[in-house]
Amino acid sequence: MAKLGKRARAAKEAFAGKENLTVEEAVALIKGNAKTKFDQTVEIAMNLGVDPRHADQMVRGSVNLPNGTGKSVRVAVFARGAKAEEAQKAGADIVGAEDLMEIVQGGKIEFDRCIATPDMMPIVGRLGKVLGPRNLMPNPKVGTVTMDVAEAVEAAKGGQVTFKAEKAGVVHAGVGKTSFDEAKLVENIRAFVDAVSKARPTGAKGTYMKKVFLTSTMGPGVSVDVVSATGNS
């Protein structure tokens, strides 16, 4: 515990007074203070000028990070027949229909992404109370309700990240690992910010991107200059 205490204090001191950094500066600071034995996730959080309680201010979408997430993603697919076979060949971890619905209803959720063919949505719809709070509900707006299940599975496995604004207008996601090269992390971060920027809803008024923060799993957070995050600096 003493060692962890020293690390925490050292990290806090390193981050003290650091704010509104460029993306490059923030990434270097986070990587330089990631001292744990495991490979930490680099996370981004964005405060947006929206109220997602209103339908015309909901922010939702997906982005294929150019350098992946560094995370192994378990994918479940609701499909039958040829589409189920297609999903299995593409590398889906779990494939099923009513049988998969029963497994999920029983509380066994051993997947990170859920994909469904359109004809399966009457079944998947019954799982809204289970999948919805976990942000796992398939949605055509992010490409997880589709007939092209192979492409969707490959995208999920290859580094696709989905995002959705929470109650306070915050969007967050993992954008890589601290073991990634700084340039690759910066590229991923800007790709994510660009996707959120393009997902600006029609009802958003005034400043859309208010604040951007970066952190690692075990490290302090640091604010990033919004202009730098967009790559327009």
UniProtKB/TrEMBL annotation:
GO terms for molecular function: rRNA binding; structural constituent of ribosome; tRNA binding. Keywords: Repressor, Ribonucleoprotein, Ribosomal protein, RNA-binding, rRNA-binding, Translation regulation, tRNA-binding. Belongs to the universal ribosomal protein uL1 family. It comes from the Bacteria. Binds directly to 23S rRNA. The L1 stalk is quite mobile in the ribosome, and is involved in E site tRNA release. Protein L1 is also a translational repressor protein, it controls the translation of the L11 operon by binding to its mRNA. The lineage of its organism: Bacteria, Pseudomonadati, Pseudomonadota, Alphaproteobacteria, Rhodobacterales. PROSITE patterns: RIBOSOMAL_L1. This is Large ribosomal subunit protein uL1. The keyword rRNA-binding applies. Part of the 50S ribosomal subunit. SUPFAM superfamilies: Ribosomal protein L1. The keyword rRNA-binding applies. One of its GO terms (biological process) is translation. One of its GO terms (cellular component) is cytosolic large ribosomal subunit.
